[in-house]
Fold:
Amino acid sequence: MPELAEVELARRLWEPAVGDTITAVDCHPKTRVFRDCPAATLRKLLPGTQLIATRAHGKRLLFTFSSATEHFLHLELHLGMAGRLYTAPPDHLAEKHDHFLLRTPNHTFAYNDYRQFGGVKLHREADPWAALPPQVLDRKFSLAYLTALLDRRPRVALKALLLDQSAFPGVGNWMADEICWRLNAHPSTPVGRLDPADLRKSSQFVCRGAIRHVADKNFALSSTRTEAFAPGSYVHLVPPPSWLFQHRWKPGGSCPRCNKSLARATIAGRTTAWCPICQTIHGNSGT
DNA sequence: ATCTCTGTTCACAA
DNA sequence: GTTGTGAACAGAGA
Structure:
């Protein structure tokens, strides 16, 4: 599920652990989420360390620990399709599909992923994220930068480029559709036909709005209703009806702008919804 | 029972 | 070299 806003929400839910000492690590005995780091390594390295920083970049999370034995120690999490972080009391027992629990004196920080499409990586270098591309809301995501990006691969379909994590980190299926819709562009439009300034504006609008509607609002809810983030529930508030989001999966859903029926098809390998009336910029229309 | 899914990766085709 | 497609991963809910 998680795209950039849910990933940011997950980061904030674990943020209270900063400054805490890890007292124990419980790992699910049989899981494939520990891809390049055996669970035994985590159990050996993490207890006694202190969490000192949390970061999010696109769909990735990075938790940095200070350790007596390692110069640098980071845990990178990817939530895949169904991953979720939550916080619980220190004596919390692992729920179904909890893959690992970080224990601190006052909390349990849990990682749950029933589909196991996510994963955990261990990094031991100073900055494992040194080479990541700029994010949509970074200052480095400039008009010149995006123009060069489009010039490099002018024939790629808009939807495919939006889903490319090295181009638009953190944008997933629904955000990609939302950006196409806001841009009035058909998802299969070759990106060479687009105005980079318009694409930049639309993608920034959607990323900013997603953070506000999903990360900010659900986080505010979590501080008044901690039980809302117990296993089994997660995101409660979604973008408003003026966004495509609330209409795209409804059978017979209609465009919030012109009220005509939405179209659906598989584009760039993913189910895609768009408004055939509003999204008039096409690759094959001649204009 | 069958199908779908806010994701990524890999093999392979065109 | 580029671009597109389908399968695989695993489980829940319709």
Notes: Residues 32, 80-82, 97, 113-117, 153, 155-157, 160, 268-269 of chain A lie near DNA strand C (CB under 10 Å from a C1'). The first helix of chain A runs from residue 4 to 14. Residues 143-274 of chain A form a domain with the Helicase, Ruva Protein; domain 3 fold (CATH 1.10.8.50).
